[in-house]
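Rotation project, supervised by the postdoc (A.L.). Task for the rotation student: set up a whole-complex structure prediction and record inputs and outputs verbatim in this book. Inputs entered:
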Amino acid sequence: MADTAPAVSVKVSLKEVAALTTDRQMCGVRFSPVTGLMSSGSYDATIRFWRKVETMPEGESVPPVKGAKGDSTNGWRELPPVTGHRGWVEGLAFSADGSKLFTGDTWGRLSCRRVEVAEGRDVTVSPEWEVTDAHDGWLREVSLSPDGGTLATCGRDGRLKLWNSSDGSLRQQMERPGRDLFAVRFHPTESSVVCGDGFGEVIIWGTDGTQQRTFDASDLFLEHRLQQVGGVRRMVFSPDGQTLAVGGTRPKNGGSVQGKPVVLLFNWKTGDKRLIELGSDSDVSVQDMQFLSEGLLLVVTSGSPGTGQVLCVDPGSGSVLLTEKKLANCHGVSLSSDGRHCVVTATNKGSNGNGRRLDDTGEYPGNWSPIHLFEISVEQMES
Amino acid sequence: MSGRLSWCRPVDGQEQEIAMSMSRSPMCTPQEHLWSRRQWLGKAGSAVAATTALGLGVADSIGVGTGSGLATAAFGEELKGLDKQVLFVWIDGGMSQFESWDPKPNSQFGGPFRPISTSLPGVQLCELMPQTARQMHRLAVVRSLCTQDNSHSAGVPRILRGDPKNRGVTYPYFGSAVAKLMGPGSSNLPPYVWIKPGSGGFKHENAGFLGPKYGALAFGDGLPPENLQRPEMLTEDAAGLRDELRQLANRRYLAGRMTTNTEASSAVFDMASSLLARKELFDTSLVDQRDIDRYGAHEFGRHMLLGRRMLEAGIRFVQVTSYGWDTHGDNFNGHASLMPRFDQAFASMIEDLHDRGMMDRVLVVCLSEFGRTPRINGQSGRDHWPESWSLAMSGAGIKPGVVVGATNEKGTSVSTEPYDIGHLFHTWFKALGIDSRQTEYDNAGQPLPIAHDDCGPVADVLA
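Outputs recorded:
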């Protein structure tokens, strides 16, 4: 893993540049390659878009963000939600040029939408193709091949499917009966696709459907009473493809799951593994990760309600270069196309509580996902 | 002690016993439950006569002289229930109603799962229970539970004791109540067994004021009590002689002493003896592999299958508990893992009880201490929610294929008549043939209702 390690004495910092309010919980936000656009799937089966504008149209109000001073949105405005899904929209990926958005939901539907961005705030989203029963139930993740031609999806039905991204036709199907396939990624330079399951196994297939090998990520799994706890929850390759980062929790128990967030770093060639723990048992689980161009790994975690972390890890040394704990229950992180900004979906404070607690208006409140945008600074210092 | 009854003056044998019971009791007797001597003797006396005349071997079917018994004005109702049994499936920690009996697809709090159709037209369940969906025409689901407690520590006993009005006594769990009211039945096996993960033992505390002998005999991890088997070096005759000696010692000790603990101790010995005679119940080599496959080789599947065998053997009350359902974190993946295993074993049980012709006599109840919040917390969990949740029933005395009550569109409140646990206790007693309005406990002379005074049965689920 030394070949992906950055120079020593690296200082990483995040500066918050915007905080957005939402009215629902989001599954995880993604930047579009088109500058100034991002999107997220939601718990209300919609797809949300945000567009950065230089000037607000006259008369348009700015939604307040609790605790923020002034206009915390910093020019980001939410567009009308896009409907058409069911359940939760957990899978979401943009094409390399940002002209297409692929989304998958927990009822098994896979969709492709054309996204046209005009000057100003105008964004047109139109359906291109759709497969209503792409998976039998929960479609966990959507991933696009490096050349953009193939889309991979995986789901609770134990299937990994490869689709023609231009028309939604099925190209290949691989099965792991009885397994819940949580995460999928294409290798950035080889014809391989990797899939992580609920038992903590990483299966590596060729894009022709042949299984090549497996990585053991069972550190992330626990059988506790009736419950199979944990598993591979997120995977990401380093830009050079030499390291596969696998995230989840090292579970202590089922029910109210507790455990330390863990990243497993696999050497792609040898399969050698390094385990990095990222917090205490109440920090629970890695939710999402992204590699920075410098080879550092940006990680978000969600723990007991109110507990969240944004971390930056040096995969070479295993050291944690940044720990930010101000945000509650972070569920997604995405990098801007220039790599200098990241966006994190978190959860409002006070999201939990037994019994009926009403808000100030006497209504039973739902929770929502604050969206935080940060400017990333990576300074390499002489040791 | 305002409840001390003026008629507790020893006159004849029965009253002597009553007086002894009263003098031992540390409990108060509420004013509203004062009965006249004539009322009490009339009802209890006729019950004694009925039992004697019919030659019933039901242990302690009425409680005169036992310290905490049963007074009833409608003993005939009890007789009808004497062959009834109960399977009580306890999902400890709180099963989510959204991910089970009351899905709210595509609503704010509905979660990720799909609804599926069931064998009952127009009724949907969560997709995580496909096998139970095929048994829905045999089930009665109440979707309008609204109970009082959102903590485990208080909620579990509150639900299991029926949350009656506070009368200064600790009420029995439902299993103890049935053991007391209905006895062991003709099987002569322990009347109240509890199949659970973890440790076993005799759980006398479940019995509350009824006294420890009505506690639960818990089979930890489905295993028989330790040291149940007679050592090989001890012959059957020698064991019998030892038991006679034990009984003799007990009788001598009992003379003039408080009896409940000794009675409980003797009862446990009797239970051990009866189990020893049926040790094949625990012999897993006798279980059909196809049944193991159907119920599942996991903990809950094994325990439910053992529960079925206990019911087949005639045990009056069988509780099967599953732990680990308190899904404050990762609720949806948790239920995605938990529910299919529950579904497999529960549906197999319903199917088997039906196929064996046992549905007419076995009351099946499945519930938790509460449901789970509509709101999804930051850890993708659901918290405790007694405000609007569900349970399922089937079998003896229960109307098959009904859904009673409803919650609103978001599942945040009951939109029809709400039912508390008191209503369910009345319902279950009624289903077992026990008139919960007329039947009362005798807590050492203190008559106590067997279910909450202000509630009644849920008529729509009764056959």
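Student's summary: Chain B is about 35% helix and 15% strand.
Supervisor addendum: The first strand of chain B starts at residue 68 and ends at 72.
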